[in-house]
Amino acid sequence: MKKISKILVANRGEIALRIIRACKELSIKSVVVFSEVDVNGIWVARADECYPIIGNAIDAYLKYDKIIDIAKKTKCDAIHPGYGFLSESAEFAQACADNGIIFIGPKPEHIALFGDKMASKVAMKKIGVPVLEGTDTPLINKDEGEKIATEIGFPVIIKAAFGGGGRGMRIVRTAEEFSNMFDSATNEAIKYFGKGEVFIEKYVENPRHIEIQIVADSYGNVVHLGERDCSIQRRHQKVIEISPSPLLNNAVRQKLALLSVNAMMQLGYESVGTVEFLVDEADNIYFIEMNTRVQVEHPVT
User: Fold this and answer.
1) Four-way CATH pick for 142-202: 3.10.150.10, 3.30.1490.20, 3.20.20.10, 1.25.40.10
2) Which CATH class is domain 6-104?
3) Using 50, 70 and 90 to split pLDDT, how confident is the model at 218?
4) pLDDT tens digits for range 81-124
5) Mean pLDDT within 228-249
6) Distance CA 273, CA 106 (A)
7) Residue 40 in contact with residue 65, Cβ under 8 Å?
8) Going along the chain, which residue ranges are E strands?
């Protein structure tokens, strides 16, 4: 890998500021792009170079063709996407590679894989990671969904196939509830993600939600940095995270870490990522998803 001497930071706010600080500590030049409303942002002032992109506070940071153009004109070796915006865009990561720019993040194929919750479950199951019983392909047909839910056994949970953040999720405890809950989940999925497809899983009562922070290089080395316990949630969204988890025994803790590291080694994963699991009351472990970026909550680690 070529030496990085200049990085474009394709983000704003706190994460942009911290990337710039890291660049300074490593004697790497930093370039930022900024929207019209961010012209007075602290991170803009702290960067070595700054360039405006026309657009509002959200759209400007999604214009990856313009961002790549600025990176090339300013002779940046790499682009750091931070979190949010383009950080989990396989298309953007591939565009960087196509233009000879290092994308500071995972390979495009891994971003795409873990962006598809069902495909990622299938992939993890193939390499020996336990997953919850459920559908392997997206569902849109309510009758088919109800049949599958009945076969799995209630309670089940309906989840948006192409979403996250707790949106498009509904717990269904009885067959009588299924129709209304299915409609509610698909409608919310369409509203927030533009797609109404969902998948169905067995619902785990009173689980611990544990995520393992991993870091991997491009030479096949993978390490974990312990766990974060994000079991305290409101409407399926994390409220408080704790590290280390006060609820895990050492055997389960070690098993979670080993599963995460071995899985990422087998897949050839690179960069940082967070492997998320549910742990039930009997200490059974189930993979649920992976975030292929630095998470907002990483300072807890």
Assistant:
1) 3.30.1490.20
2) alpha beta
3) very high
4) 999 999 999 999 999 999 999 999 999 999 999 998 889 999 99
5) 92
6) 8
7) no
8) 6-9, 29-34, 49-52, 78-80, 102-103, 156-160, 170-172, 198-202, 208-216, 222-234, 237-242, 271-279, 285-291
Amino acid (1-letter code) at residue 270? E
Our CA angle for 93, 130, 122, nearest 5°, is 45
pLDDT digits (tens, 9 = 90+) for 139-156: 999 999 999 999 999 999
Cβ–Cβ under 8 Å, residues 254 and 244: no
- E strand segments, 99-242: 102-103, 156-160, 170-172, 198-202, 208-216, 222-234, 237-242
Ranges in the chain annotated CATH 3.30.470.20: 112-129+206-300
CATH class belonging to 112-129+206-300: alpha beta
Q: Would you state the pLDDT for residue 161?
A: 86
Do the bridges between strand 198-202 and strand 6-9 make them parallel or antiparallel, or are there none, so unpaired? Answer: unpaired
Q: What is the CA radius of gyration of the chain?
A: 20
Q: Is the model's pLDDT at 220 over the cut of 70? A: yes
Active site residues: 293
